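ugh ok fine here u go
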Amino acid sequence: MSVTLTSIDGPVATLTLNRPEARNALNTELLGALAAGMATLDADPEVAAIVLTGADPAFCAGLDLKALAEGSQAVGGTRDAATPGAPFAPTSKPVIGAINGPAVTGGFEIALHCDFLIASEQASFADTHARVGIMPGWGLSVRLPLAVGYARAKQISLTGNFVDAATALRWGLVNEVVPHADVVTRAQQLGADIASVPAAARIRYRQLYDEHADLRAALLHEGQVSAAFTFDRDALAASREAIQARGRTQSSSDRV
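structure:
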């Protein structure tokens, strides 16, 4: 079974993270397939917009904690000069996140790399980096406060609590909340709307937004902190079940 699925309908491509049995947790194989799939779609001249989603029941549970504790999974993503703090290389095409379920830690960071987010009513978001005992390396400390403000970002990151879809909408983290069955379709509709705008104008306008929010220095700093932070694999292995159990409890009944 492929760990990512890709479909193209006219000018809109959809890439689906496809490890549903592991809640789309990011192991080395899935990370590689995500980066390769996004690069392929970005290079396709017929594609004008990309929708990124997950196979139910989750968008992405973050790094595979079991693999991380065993040492078979690295912490963080690319940290080279061209793409500091990124789970995949920057794209020239807009990426719309169709958040169909929990987006946790590394999965939350992937969501924040999208241009904007459409959320299912079943979506939720959590940053458990501090609770796990690692530092973010894909830009969460930079991108999250831009989305929700510094005070709310600190609340999310320092508690590790889940933010449900309704709260995410109220805080400006997501643009819309739609019925679960409609989340991918709605994101694809917006992708088609983007594709209907003259190419030269939409491409340059998106670049203009990105130029105004030049994050390179901050992303490089986060990457340096993440790489230097001491990570205790034994402690993670011992606490992994407790962290997962807390996430299951909060995602169903105790969200922010």
